[in-house]
Amino acid sequence: MVSPRTFLFAAGLSLTLSVGVSAHHSNAAYDTDHPLTMEGTVKTVNWTNPHITFVIDKDAKEGEQPSTWVFEVSSPGVLTRSGWTKRSLQPGDHAVFRYAPLRDGTNGGFLLKVTLPNGQELSYSLTPADQ
Predict the structure, then answer these.
(1) Is 60 helix (H, G, I), strand (E, B) or coil?
(2) Dihedral sign computed on CA atoms, order 96, 24, 103, 56
(3) What pTM, to 2 d.p., does this model score?
(4) Does 85 fall in a domain?
(5) Could you tell me if 109 and 101 are in contact, meaning their C-beta atoms sit under 8 angstroms apart?
(6) What is the DSSP string of 65-131?
(7) 126 part of a folded domain
(8) How many domains does the chain have?
(9) What burial letters (b/e) apply to 32-69, b meaning 16+ CB within 10 Å?
(10) pLDDT the model gives residue 1
């Protein structure tokens, strides 16, 4: 039999941990309602937990200055289950990047899909079964 005090402690701890996990996985910083697309070349790949990041040199169009962008994606586990490998996107690769931009307007966002020059698309699923 579990004492009421132990039960309340366990319930409170569980609630505290679930709020922290929920906050960590929030996409509130990204404008997911207005995804954008850009072309660029991969500069750096950081294939690490908890989130993979890609540093991209955006192709400068006429009148624009070259710029560097940082895109966050999900975890290595989620991408691996979606068919990605550490070598799917490497420094020097040119591609089209579809992303949810950062709400504060800085150069970055949450990467949604990558289209390589050969037409191959790299995307991933964020369904509950994949997390």
Answers:
(1) coil
(2) negative
(3) 0.75
(4) yes
(5) yes
(6) PPEEEEEE---HHHHHHTT--TTSS-TT-EEEEEEEEBTT--SEEEEEEEE-TTS-EEE----GGG-
(7) yes
(8) 1
(9) eeeeeebebebeebebeeeebbbbbebeeeeeeeeeeb
(10) 55
pLDDT tens digits for the chain (131 residues)? Answer: 555 554 444 444 444 433 444 445 567 899 999 999 999 999 999 999 999 999 999 998 888 888 999 999 999 999 999 999 999 999 999 999 999 999 999 999 999 999 999 999 999 876 544 34
Structural domain boundaries, residue 48: 36-130
Q: Is 85 exposed, middle or buried (0-12, 13-18, 19+ CB in 10 A)?
A: exposed
Residue 19 domain flag = no
DSSP string, 3-57: -HHHHHHHHHHHHHHHHHHHHHT--TTB-TTS-EEEEEEEEEEE--SS--EEEEE
What CATH number does the domain containing 88 carry?
2.40.50.140
- In the chain, the amino acid numbered 38 is M
